[in-house]
């Protein structure tokens, strides 16, 4: 089901929650909304679901304007974090509720309801839990019940607001893979709000980045990393460190910071560089090469993938670096190191963007 949003504006008193949001979802797409707290993600979802109105702009679903169409007539499956299950109802009754709220003409009879509920519980892989109550099942299972309830109306569009918020990391990974599979199997169009970048990048075909009530970039995850449209996106996505520098004759230098210069095709002037953790390499040295050490490892941390990373502070900015193979044995707290940069996203004062590269072919580290 296609979704087209044009110029959506929503104000709460003096605060502008949505400031002219426009974007379109293609049929069958899985998209994520990512943005800082208060950027308008939930408000946008609630307007799409028909739970809230807007001051200006238009929402079209499958080509049809949603102006004046109430929530229950939109045929949208909704799972919001605060849409808790009914605690006094069994899992079966919770899912059946999804069918009972359908418009009268589309409401199945008792036998058909029972058949559909069991089919949905099979679909979300918890058929054995139908007689239990919500607080007798795990958090992951509760999310599956909430999804089954949302899917009961046979929606083509699924709106999810932080649906995995309450789950621990491992269960979360499991449930989200399963959800992506379900989306593909049922041919749904899905829009997911999340705080978790990794989740958005793993699940979504495209990610819409929101900043202060606007969608500032809507691209596939790889494109967000490779070509962020604005400094905000560059800083927000991928945990990049932001450093100020100066471009002269196509070369970016970081003043007195112990970082190598980079080639950057930007006009002369101040520039802001964004360095991702994977793009900086720390080569631990046996001893500082004469005088003060160029940089020193503050601490070492191990990523979820088991990779050791060096953490340093340069000019008040915390930077994370991979360790150069061969120097790993020397890497320790306080060890001096030389820094290499594989590449960086750089924005010039005039708004231009360039991908900066090492001046010399860097040693392959
Ligand atoms: N009912 C409301 N009354 C007043 N202000 C509201 C209301 N709902 C949202 N806002 C404001 O609108 C802005 C956007 O809120 P929204 O909940 O959409 O952001 P969000 O991106 O979903 O945030 P979070 O990630 O924290 O959930 C915020 O400044 C918020 O304070």
From TrEMBL:
Keywords: ATP-binding, Nucleotide-binding, Transport
Pfam family, one: ABC_tran
SMART domains (alphabetical): AAA
UniProt-listed SUPFAM superfamilies: P-loop containing nucleoside triphosphate hydrolases
Top-level taxonomic group: Bacteria
Boundaries of every ABC transporter domain copy: 3-237
Protein name in the entry: Sulfate ABC transporter ATP-binding protein
Organism for this UniProt entry: Roseicella frigidaeris
PROSITE patterns documented for this protein: ABC_TRANSPORTER_1 (PS00211), ABC_TRANSPORTER_2 (PS50893)
GO molecular function: ATP binding; ATP hydrolysis activity
One of the GO biological process terms: quaternary ammonium group transport
């Amino acid at each position: 089901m296609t979704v087209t949003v044009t110029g959506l504006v929503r104000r709460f008193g003096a605060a502008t929650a949505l400031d002219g949001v426009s974007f379109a979802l293609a049929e069958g797409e899985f998209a994520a909304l990512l943005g800082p707290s208060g950027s308008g993600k939930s408000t946008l979802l609630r307007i799409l679901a028909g739970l809230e109105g807007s001051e200006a702009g238009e929402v079209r679903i499958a080509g049809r304007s949603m102006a004046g169409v109430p929530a229950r007539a939109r045929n949208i499956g909704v799972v919001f974090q605060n849409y808790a299950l009914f605690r006094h109802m069994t899992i079966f009754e919770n899912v059946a509720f999804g069918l009972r709220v359908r418009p009268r003409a589309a409401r199945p009879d008792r036998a058909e309801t029972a058949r559909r509920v069991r089919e949905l519980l099979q679909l979300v892989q918890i058929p054995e839990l139908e007689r239990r109550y919500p607080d007798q099942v795990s958090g992951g299972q509760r999310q599956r019940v909430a999804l089954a309830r949302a899917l009961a109306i046979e929606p083509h569009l699924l709106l999810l607001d932080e649906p995995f918020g309450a789950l621990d990391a491992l269960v979360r990974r499991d449930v989200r893979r399963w959800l992506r599979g379900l989306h593909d199997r049922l041919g749904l169009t899905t829009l997911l709000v999340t705080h978790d970048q990794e989740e958005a990048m793993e699940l979504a075909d495209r990610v819409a980045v929101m900043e202060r009530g606007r969608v500032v970039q809507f691209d596939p995850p790889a494109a967000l990393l490779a070509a962020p449209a604005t400094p905000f996106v560059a800083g927000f996505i991928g945990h990049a460190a932001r450093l100020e520098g100066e471009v002269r004759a196509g070369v970016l230098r970081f003043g007195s910071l112990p970082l190598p210069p980079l080639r950057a095709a930007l006009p002369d002037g101040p520039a802001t560089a964004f360095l991702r953790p994977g793009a900086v390499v720390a080569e631990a040295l046996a001893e500082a090469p004469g005088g003060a050490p160029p940089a020193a490892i503050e601490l070492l941390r191990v990523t979820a993938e088991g990779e050791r990373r060096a953490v340093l502070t340069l000019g008040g900015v915390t930077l994370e670096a991979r360790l150069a193979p061969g120097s790993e044995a020397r890497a320790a707290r306080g060890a001096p190191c030389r820094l290499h940069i594989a590449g960086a996203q750089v924005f010039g004062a005039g708004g231009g963007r360039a991908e900066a590269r090492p001046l010399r072919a860097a040693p392959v580290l």
